[in-house]
Amino acid sequence: MPLYGQTLLLFALNAMDALLTLYWVRNGFATEGNHLMATLLDIGDLPFLVVKVAIGAVTAIVLWRWRHLRLAKYALGFALIIYVCLMGVHLFTGLSAMGLISESMLHQLSEFGRGLYALVF
């Protein structure tokens, strides 16, 4: 995929993350893990969406602006991997909300994710 498409995909995944997070939190299926974003959610939906989409836009612009640098290409790839994994979290949240995944299975997946995160970072 061309770099331009990857940059647009990153922005689209960021916007989708914002909308899905808003839906899951407002319907009581999840909580926002980022304390700053949770505070914005407490203020209202619009501040949350504006900041979340603005962060995604600035990130996409910066990565596109310095696309000729190898670091920007690696950062874009890494950010896409993170957002694809985040979409997986949203998928499991949705499946859980529909009753298709039990709480114990979701807890096991959560523990696996935390262990993987601890291993990587």
Secondary structure topology:
Elements: H1 3-26, H2 35-43, H3 45-65, H4 70-97, H5 103-120
Order of helices and strands: HHHHH
- Specify the number of helices: 5
Query: What profile does the largest beta sheet have?
Result: none
- Mean pLDDT value: 88
Give the percentage of residues in beta strands.
Answer: under 5%
Number of domains: 1
- Backbone CA Rg: 16 Å
Global outline: globular
Helix content range of the residues, please? Answer: over 70%
Cα separation of the termini = 28 Å
Tally of extended strands?
0
Structural class call reads mainly alpha
Low-confidence stretches: none
Architecture overview:
With 121 residues, the protein is mainly alpha-helical. It has one domain (3-120). Helices cover 83% and strands 0% of the residues. It has five helices and no strands. The chain has helices spanning 3-26, 35-43, 45-65, 70-97, 103-120. α3 runs antiparallel to α4 (70-97). The protein is globular, with a radius of gyration of 16 Å.
